[in-house]
Amino acid sequence: MSLKRLHVLFDDDDILLDAVKEIVKSKIYIHEVYTPFPVHGLDKAMKLKPTNISIATFIYGCIGFTVSILMMNYIMIVDWPQDIGGKPSFSYIENMPAFVPIMFELTVFFAAHLMVITFYLRSKLWPFKEAENPDPSTTDDKFLIDMDSGSNLSKTKSMLKKMGAISIKEVKE
Amino acid sequence: MNNPLGKMAINPDVNVRSRGVMEKCSLCIQMTQKVKLDAKKEGRRVRDGEFKTACSESCDDNAMVFGDINDKESEILRVKDGDRTYRVLESIGTKPNVIYQVKIRNSKKI
Amino acid sequence: MSSHYEAPIRKPLVLGDKSYGDISNDIARPVETPPNIDWWIAFSIAMAAFLWGLGCMAYTLGTGIGTWGLNKTVGWAWDITNFVWWVGIGHAGTLISAVLLLFRQKWRMGINRSAEAMTIFSVIQAGLFPIIHMGRPWLAYWMFPIPNQFGSLWVNFNSPLLWDVFAISTYLTVSLVFWWTGLLPDFAMIRDRAVKPFQKKIYSLISFGWSGRAKDWQRFEEVSLVLAGLATPLVLSVHTIVSFDFATSVIPGWHTTIFPPYFVAGAIFSGFAMVQTLLIIMRKVSRLESYITLQHIEMMNIVIMITGSIVGCAYITELFIAWYSGVEYEQYAFLNRATGPYWWAYFLMMSCNVVSPQIMWIKKIRTNIIWSFVISIVVNVGMWFERFVIIVTSLHRDYLPSSWTMFSPTFIDIGIFIGTIGFFFVLFLLYARSFPVVAQAEIKTILKSSGENYKKLRDK
């Protein structure tokens, strides 16, 4: 029997999680799971790789930190040092306490904004992007698994029904 | 103002600002710059007494002295380190660049 | 089954017999139904105030700062008071979203969306003041370090006023993205049930195509956590930097190291009070009492009580140190505050900020909606007067008696302030009818653990 694509709806997150675990155990490929809220443990059950976005954010923060230091060093020490209230204007380190607030703020600024941009790009979120959830109720109160049928369609269907699926639809690829 | 009399009244080298700009005494920075530039062009150091402000120059009684406190032989340094010197709100420690001298009173009473 | 267990001693955070679908319906209802007459009345009043304020700002722009009551001695008055007041209010939203997330306080979920909205709208108001108080606001871009033809004349990075520019810009933009990112799944919920084509188009646009994929949720959760981690030090640092505007000066009553923690505590204090004011009304009008429960009101009151006590402690510390230091300028500054020509402002500040939150120790008061609302207004009035007292009393009589003078506001000063209040409410009222005002996706994650019906079943 040829592989078919199934869209399976559930109405409970715990039932969904058990179903996903069962499907993975049966070695049937899950393309995607659409849920109205984050289901704790779902990404692990689907064997999704953990996200590296926080590591990227740390790097972005380091970039912000560096940018702030380079900027203020150039502006206040190298290009146009001035005697402002007697503050040491020829050495970055000596004047550093005054620069800390901006060093901190730019670190946070770069980390936060570059992280969010990375998130949006990686998850393909931007204005005018069309939504891709097959069933609009998956943002309301239903959960959808987009999966292969496996080699035995009827066996898969009966397993899903037993696990609590409320509807199973065969879809064109 | 655009006549010899008017030009004397306004700050040389500086145009009149538009509304909304706060300005205060700049200790005639333009005159200071000119003195430095002239000395540089002539290849010499600035002499004591060359640095002037409009007010110090025009005062008949030499009540105001202006100069470079980094110059070890300047009159201003002598004044600054003298006995009569005080600054406004000296205890705060902001060391303003405008210093005053105590009035000499010709009497034994304080 | 997976663990949705919550100890029975915890009160439910979602009341009634709600299902996931009910949550969607309840939160979508204010967006999908037209507003009633009360909304229109409130909106008209807010809009009128906003337009009046806009007129006053335009007059200031065209004629100059001379239209305000400022003078040589009192160079800052209502402008900076309002700026600090609005920035302070904003900090509560970030604290609720970020700090309470890090502390895993589930009660934040009913209120964080609206609290963050409040933050964005109040920081917008705050940001108006540095711009309109400039003599030449059309040159505001000179505040940024942009290479230029004046020999590249740069900004002064030693100045707390510039630190403010960076801090407030960072705070506004980071709060905005935190809020908007959290909104994406909720906009998607409205998009997917929208029937009217215009509504569908708009919510499709602003939901950025959110589809609720598992990988997206995984990233979403991580991003929320990291943003919370980044926003938490922002709450502390931004108002600290604002306090530096005063603390780094030499004026008695300003030059004191207690300002950073005092200002931050004060900001959270006034911010939570404003959240209370807004939510007590909104929960009734939008019928969200199941999500913004009495428990939420009480928790916020407790925060108000604690931060109010910290502020009260700071006041007493200032007085003690003024006496103990022996510095006559500092001593006079506080004597003048309490007994000088602005004694009435000082009295208002003390009674509103120190006395009123203390009555929250009484459980009957802090669980009472009317009292909560009244105290929230009182606290915000008190906190405005605190900033006014700090700024104007310290400026109008500092070191040299020859400079002492009085300050009184012009109708432009007052008009601009009222305008910002109007603008704030215009934004909030629009938000309340077009945005999902409760983080419904988050609430759904705690329905099984903290929903009243589920708890009842479990605790049988």
Report on the structure:
The complex is a heterotrimer of chains A (173), B (110) and C (460). With 173 residues, chain A is of the alpha+beta class. Chain A has helices spanning 13-25, 42-45, 53-79, 92-122, 153-163; strands at 5-10, 30-34, 143-148, 167-171. In chain A, helix 3 packs antiparallel against helix 4. Chain B is mainly alpha-helical and 110 residues long. Chain C has 460 residues and is mostly helical. Chain C has 16 helices and no strands. The mean pLDDT of chain C is 95. Chain C is globular and about 75 Å long. Chains B and C meet through loops of B and loops of C.
Reconstruct the topology from this structure.
The complex is a heterotrimer of chains A (173), B (110) and C (460).
Chain A: E1 5-10, H1 13-25, E2 30-34, H2 42-45, H3 53-79, H4 92-122, E3 143-148, H5 153-163, E4 167-171
Antiparallel strand pairs in A: 1-3, 1-4, 2-3
Helix pairs in contact in A: 3-4
Chain B: H1 4-9, H2 29-42, H3 54-58, H4 75-80, E1 85-86, E2 100-101
Antiparallel strand pairs in B: 1-2
Chain C: H1 20-32, H2 37-63, H3 78-102, H4 112-132, H5 160-193, H6 197-206, H7 214-247, H8 259-285, H9 294-325, H10 328-339, H11 343-358, H12 363-366, H13 369-396, H14 411-434, H15 440-450, H16 452-458
Helix pairs in contact in C: 1-15, 2-14, 3-4, 3-7, 3-8, 3-13, 4-5, 4-8, 4-14, 5-6, 5-7, 7-8, 8-9, 8-13, 9-10, 9-11, 10-11, 11-13
Spatial shape of chain C: globular
Kindly report the spatial arrangement of strands forming the biggest sheet of chain B: 1-2
Could you spell the SSE succession of chain C in H and E letters?
Answer: HHHHHHHHHHHHHHHH
What is the strand content of chain C? under 5%
Helix residue percentage of chain B: 25-40%
Count all strands of chain B and give the number: 2
Q: Percent of residues of chain C in helical segments?
A: over 70%
Order of helices and strands of chain B: HHHHEE
Concise overview:
With 173 residues, chain A is of the alpha+beta class. Chain A has 5 helices and 4 strands. Chain C contains 16 helices and no strands.
